[in-house]
Predict the 3D structure of the following.
Amino acid sequence: MSQGGYFHSVRLDLAKCKGCTNCIKRCPVEAIRVREGKARIMEERCIDCGECVRVCPNHAKYVVTDGLERLQDFRCRVALPAPAFYGQFRPDVPPGAVLAALLGAGFDGVFEVAVAAEAVTLATRAYLERGMPRAARPLISSACPAVIRLMQVRFPTLLPHIIPVETPMEIAARLAKEEMARERGVNPREIGAFFITPCAAKVTAAKQPEGSLVSSVDGVLSMSAMYAEVLRRLPDVDLSGELHRSSGMGIGWGAAGGEGRALGTGTVLAVDGIHNVVTVLEEVERGTLSDVDFIEAQACVGGCIGGPLAVQNPFISRVRMRRLVEEYGKRGPGVDEAEVRRRFRQGFFDMVKPIGPRPVLRLDEDVTRAIRKMDRLEKTLARLPGLDCGACGSPTCRALAEDIVRERAFETDCIFQLREHLEELAERMVQLTRIVPPALSRDKAPGGGGGGEPEDRG
Amino acid sequence: MVEELVLEFEVRGLDFAAVGEASGSIKRTLQQVGMEASLVRRAAVCAFEVETNIVIHARRGVVRARISPQRVVVEAEDEGPGIPDLELAMQEGYSTAPAYVREMGFGAGMGFSNMRRCSDHMEVSTEVGKGTRVRLVIEVGKA
């Protein structure tokens, strides 16, 4: 389940892993090595972005989610579909039909995460109106848990830039339980809130939250599994209920750029794809983005519709999401703005726990020792071929040098280094074969031709 | 026994695509060495500013970082035009960067003030027609 005290939703099926280098190359935090022919995820580094799940040609990487049997643990069950879920279906399937079909899949209620996203947008506006220290600009959205975890590992200096407003997933779970408890007169503790996720990072965020002490999400269901459940039930759904409340403002959150557009204030930079996020965060760290107020950063290309658990091609779902945003853009949000502002003032949206760094890249606890190791790392790197071939099982020559310094690898793990060693050895062997022991030597003169020179011995 | 780690990077003038490579490497190294976040950030800004100065104004130059448990020293030496009026150049907002460079978002005249803001000690020596040397010291444990 959780190794080293850290829960991870990204797992490895050892039987399927062939030990190729696709995943080690793509990992944004260099958390994977191939050892003894199999990939190994370094638990302390992994940020559950799901990049390796996407690129593994053998489907050896997978995302752990809860099964539908988890529903049995609760008296009442509410489904929380991510906005990206609507973009998975054909254009003639309205959100209302998706929600009705979900109800038939064993839920007593549904609460759209798109509605919670609207609430988060309104709360964020209220937060921005408070004004903020210039030092923490540009502000960075807290919505993508993989980005948050990337920052903890690689950009700890930027953690103060994260807007301390809870995520739509978390707010949806809280609002859903309140609503259901009120309507049905049940104890909130008897209600199970199940998030339908497009990605691995949200699973981790629900099981091991960063901004709150405990998540209100009780279970996380895979979007691809729920897609099948909904598809089966679509032909005979009852559309009489008014289940769909969200407007284009909330639905848009499911695709890259939607969150920034919903905010509708200040200069927004939207970046998607974790490797692109890295480049933008590097700019923020250099202090060159003073003209940007707000950064919407998402680990998956295309935003949540590009998540590893989404079914539909993200470029196709982007078209559908855009159409939904247009179609439902006219109606007002599914939440009451005055009510959101009132609750924002009460602290309902606040992240209660500061997001701290995960300094896993440090070579040593002690700076003096770390500097020595760094010096050895640089010298080791200079001897490596610089091809970044991955044959040693580390993603780059630099990573291998780091592994050597951390005593997790040997210089001869590099096949080029090994070959040089072998060449030297082979030469030594040839030299040794030329040496004729004196007892076999036919020459009268000691040290004559045919025999080895004395200095050749040993 | 190594008490000081020296990293050195060649920087070529007008190579805007490569801006940030030297300072990026310095930043990553400081992180791996385990320097505290605020120091990493200040040193990264210093390195980035001297690196961009070389790219904008000089033909070529070197950016160096000397890393020890007590301090980080960022040094830059270039073969460039030198600075005729250093006092003027140090003023916030003053820049001799050509228009096309400013259009790229560089050369806003904040370089020296950013360096001053992020370092505990700053030395600049320059000779017209020869080049410029900058030395920035960031002490460990000073916020």
